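Researcher: I'm preparing a figure for a lab meeting and need a structural model of a single chain. I don't have an experimental structure, so a prediction will have to do for now. The sequence is pasted below. Please return the structure as C-alpha cells so I can convert it later.
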Amino acid sequence: MSQAGPRPGRWRLVVVGGGSAAAIQVRRGDVPPQEVLVVAERLGTGMAFLGHSTLQSYAGELLLSGRPEELRAVMRPGDLRPSANEYDTYVQESLMRSGASVTLARVMDIQQDAQGFVLSLRTPGGVRRQVYADGVVLATGSTPRRPPEDLRAAGAITYDTVHRELAAGSTRRWEGMSVVIAGAGNSAMQTAGLMAPDARDVTILANRYIGMYPAESNDRFAWRAPSQLAYELVVKSARECGRQPWNVPCVRHLVHETLTADGGAIRWRYRETDNLGVLGSHSTAGRCRHARAHRVGGDDADGLWEETRRADSTVVVWAAGCTPVYPPGELTGSLAREPDGTLRRDAHGRTDVPGLHVTGACAGQRSVNETVPARTRGPVTGPASGEEPGLPVERVTA
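Model: Understood. Here is the structure written out cell by cell.
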C-alpha cells in the first residue's frame, strides 16, 4: 500500500472508524486527506441495521461535506429524508472519494512511541500488521446499550435485533407475544410501531416523557416523524382494545419506576401521578384489557401500581440508548471518561494523551448535524465550511 505520511512509513493522522464521524473528520478536518489513513472493520453508518426504514432527519441535516449533491445522488427523487440503506451507501462513498487511504481491519491495540502512535491491526483474513501515526482520531461510533443482567437472563434483546430480524422477514420471536420495550426515545417508539402488528400487545416503559417535536418539545432530539405511528396507536388502542371488532394493535406508554425479571416473571411499577399526560392517561390500569395491574402497598400507596407478565410469553426489548465503543488496549482503557461513558476531552476533541483525539459519539456528539471534526493540529481553524481539498483516486486495501 502506498503511504503518504509526512515521512516514510508514518501517517500524519489515522482515523479509527468507518462511519459518519470518520467521514466528517476526513473531509472537514485540518489534515489533508492524502495524509490520512482510515482504519475500519466496515465502511458505513452504524445504523445500517435499520435497512429500508426512513431516517428521522432531513437530508440537509445529514451532510458529511459541503456537497449536498452527493447525498441526493443516492436518494430517490422527491424524498426529504434518506433511508438507512441510502445513507449507508452515502457514508461509504464519501470516504471512498475523500482522497484518504482506507484499510479494512480491526484495531487490536494503540500504543505510544517516541514519535506518536503505533496501531496494531488485524485484517479480516487474520493478517496482523502495524501502522504508525503522528496523531489518532477515535471516530468509532456507538452500539445499542445492553439490558441489565436479570433481563438478559430472561431473554431480553436489544432493539437492533428487531430491525435485523424484520429485514430477514422474520417476526417469529414476538408473534402473538406480549412485548415490553424499555426506552424513552425514538428508538423505543419506532420499535413499538414495527412490532405492534404481530405482537399480542406492546408496552413502552420510559424513564421520562419525551413528547413530539415540535408540538410538545423544542428539543430536536425528541420524538420525530416515524415515532408518530406509535404515539397514535397508544391513543387509539386505549379506545379500541376489547371492542368488537378489534382492529387496532394495542400499544401503551408508561413512565415507570422499576423493571425487573425474577421467578419466571417480568414486573414493572409506575405511578399514576407520573402518567397524567396525553399518552399516560391512555395507558394506566383499567384503560385497556391488557393493563392488568394491582396496587402496591394498598389504597394509600400514592397511586403506585405493579404489572406482571410471564417471561415465557413476553419479549423484552432494550431500547435505552447507545454507548460509545473504543478499540481495546491499555492506552484507550486508561483514558479518563465522563459519566455518560464518553472520553474526557476539550472543546477541540483532544484527550489527556497528546495527539489522541475523539469525535462523534465518542465525544458526546449525538447526531451527524452536531458532529464536528477534532482539531488535530492545535487550535487552528481547518478548511472553511463547504471547502474541501481535491479528490484524488481512492486507495483501498484489505
